[in-house]
Amino acid sequence: MPLKDSRPPSSTPDTDSLVRRLAGPSTTKAGLAKDQTEINKIIAEASKGSKFYENEKRKDKDLTERIEKILKHRDEVVKGVDLAKVEQGVDKLITQLEAHRDLSQVIVHVDMDAFFASVELLDNPDLASKPFGVGHGVLSTASYEARKFGVRSGMPTFIARKLCPELIVISSHFHRYGEMSEKVMAIFRRYDPNMAAAGCDEGYLNITSYCEEHSLTPEECVSQMREIVHQETKLTVSAGIAPNKNKPNGQFKLDFEPEAIKAFMHDLSIRKVPGVGRVHERLLDSIGIKTCGDIFAQRAVLSLMDKEFGLMFLLQAYLGIASNVIEPWQREERKSIGAERTFNPISDTVKIHAKLEEVAAELSGDMTAGGWTGKTITLKYKLDTYKVFTRAKSLDKWVSTRQQDLFALGKELLKPELPLTLRLIGLRVTKLKDLKAEAESKASGIKRFFNSGPADGSPAKKRRTEEVSAGEDDLPQLSQDGFATSMPGYTDEADADAEHLADMEEQSGVNDMKPASNIGAAARPPSSSASQRACTAKPSSSASGPTSPRKKRISSSTNDERGTSSDASAPLLECPICGKLLETDNQGLNEHIDFCLSKQAIKEAQTASLKPPSHSGSSSDAKKRGPKFAPPKAAAKGHGEGLLKFRKKG
DNA sequence: GCGGATCAC
DNA sequence: TATGGTGATCCGC
Question: Where are the stretches annotated Disordered (predicted)?
Fold first, then answer.
């Protein structure tokens, strides 16, 4: 496209939102320091004119238009409505949520500091105090020194060098990260055998039992744990007891008091709430919400526009309430398996097929090693313009795991799309079937079933049980030779630090980042992610105790049938959302609430307890169209590890 | 069931 | 020169 752009670079100044967008998703936020705007400008300048830049510009424009529509819709919806009355309804909901806050569990969010960079430092002390990054075309992490220049994970190296000319770029050593990750996770498991790993450098622990049994305060317990990690691995880890986390090498505990929690949330950027990314941040900003505290002031609008904003989700953020159930990720939870690869743009169909074949080979290997098959196959491709498309097909039978068959299916899906100029191609299989479980159950009468013991719903108790039966041997993978080429997720605390360090590098203890995750007794369910999957070498096994300890976790997702589980025993509690009486303990109730916060449930709760005057909208709302905005209700649970695998290079 | 979006890591 | 990979969820149709 020899298209010329006739305008001088300066004639069309980038909008603020575009400049920020170009800075990358990992710019967690926080009022950008002065430096940050300067840095963003440099990044935007370096990107200017590229296809990537044009694509970001397009997305930014789309979002801007979407926001305009939302505001218009808001003005319409608010018209003639008694907002005070709507607020009263929301206040009732808040009261109910508050009444069921569970502060009984001590949840810790642990996060290794600049993980990849720290491991590299162990192996090469010469790097100490030097600005360096790890990665190939894109950095997966940056040392603290490099972050001072604005270098972040996820940043292309050519831009990183513009920000920091002396930057040292070294390649990744995933095998090492995997080894170290295992060591650290093993230490965490001493404190909570049921911990949930979130990527290879993060995790959530419920230390309630450990503290009791060892007569330790949460702070003592976590200090000790961090010290042991340091002694045994020379790596530092930050931890947040309750809500936030601090780093580097910091530790923070929030008082387990509703008021303290709300005060903490009040000034916390909405962007730090798990589930709120760059897009939702802008949408919320458009109606005056920048911090969790702002949610309260806008509750009437949020209630009237629940569909767009997700009222219950935001109220929980405002209150600092979230799930406090920590469980290791389980194999049954897997929903898809796939592979994709980026390359320099290709138009030649023969060459595109060659790439597709490589991807098919990789997927085949992963499916075979993991013991998976499925019923639906999805082709994904990204044009050289960065626009992404998917094409799927569901079969009558299980997808073959053979490379040639996957390749053939991929070609079939791709055919009607050609000709194309692509920069990425991928394949994914969903509607999975677990071949290992099947083989196992056939072989022996495995009893992987829940002995549903309702009474022991408390995580604390579960913890004790621990039955780790280790079965699993899977192991696999092994990379042959390998060199890991794929970028394993960035992670490493991705972001934030850069900006914070810029203005607060000194004070090591305070800088929270991320999330408001485990507020109070609520920990953010570690989300899924396989992020640094490539890093752990032998994953599975150790990881979670395979045998599913049972317990079927509640999915919190949309419409599952509402638990009719009326087990016996336990007191009766009323769910604030659905009003249902449950025979369970507080913990069980919390789980139910998570689960209950589905679209349907929210709707019921609102009409039942809110009842906005005019806007009762019956059902006509449906057509209201409009941009959608519904953050994950309860956040997914995290996996963490079972899927780490080793990638090889091709 | 499909495709686009958004998000986490 | 040049901007990742894996997996999940939600929504509209």
Answer: 1-33, 448-491, 505-571, 605-650
The nucleotide closest to A533 (CA, C1' atoms): C6
Q: Over the stretch A481-498, which tens digit does the pLDDT of each residue have?
A: 222 222 333 334 433 333
Q: Provide the mean pLDDT of chain A.
A: 74
**Sign of torsion, CA A23 A523 A430 A547?**
positive
- CB of A630 within 7 Å of some strand C atom: yes
Pairing mode of beta strands A572-574, A202-206? unpaired
| CB-proximal positions of chain C, under 7 Å | 2-13
Name the domain boundary from A389, A423, A451: A451
Do the bridges between strand A422-434 and strand A168-170 make them parallel or antiparallel, or are there none, so unpaired?
A: unpaired
Could you give the dihedral angle defined by the CA atoms of residues A186, A214, A257 and A243, in that order, rounded to the nearest 10 degrees?
-10
Q: Could you give the CA distance from residue A543 to residue A199 in angstroms, rounded to a whole number?
A: 12
Q: Which of A56, A87, A202, A641 is catalytic?
A: A202
**A309 assigned to some structural domain:** no
Assess whether A636 (CB) lies less than 7 A from strand C.
yes
For residue A186, pLDDT over 90 is answered with yes
Q: Closest CA to C6 C1' — which residue?
A: A530
Q: Is A402 helix (H, G, I), strand (E, B) or coil?
A: coil
Domain that holds residue A612: 99-104+549-624
Tens of pLDDT along A261-293? 999 999 999 999 999 999 999 999 999 999 999
Number of domains in chain A: 2
Residues 6+ apart with CB under 8 A from A260: A254
Q: Which of A413, A434, A451 is the last residue of a domain?
A: A451
Q: Is residue A52 part of a domain?
A: no
Tell me the β-bridge partners of A377.
A393, A429
The verdict on residue A556 lying in a domain is yes
What pLDDT, on the 0 to 100 scale, is given for residue A109? 93
Contact A189, A195 (CB under 8 A): yes
Distance from residue A607 (CA) to nucleotide C13 (C1'), in Å?
A: 26
Residue A348 lies in a domain: yes
Which nucleotides in chain B lie closer than 7 A to a protein CB? 1-9
Active-site residue flag, A202? yes
The CATH number that applies at residue A394 is: 3.30.1490.100
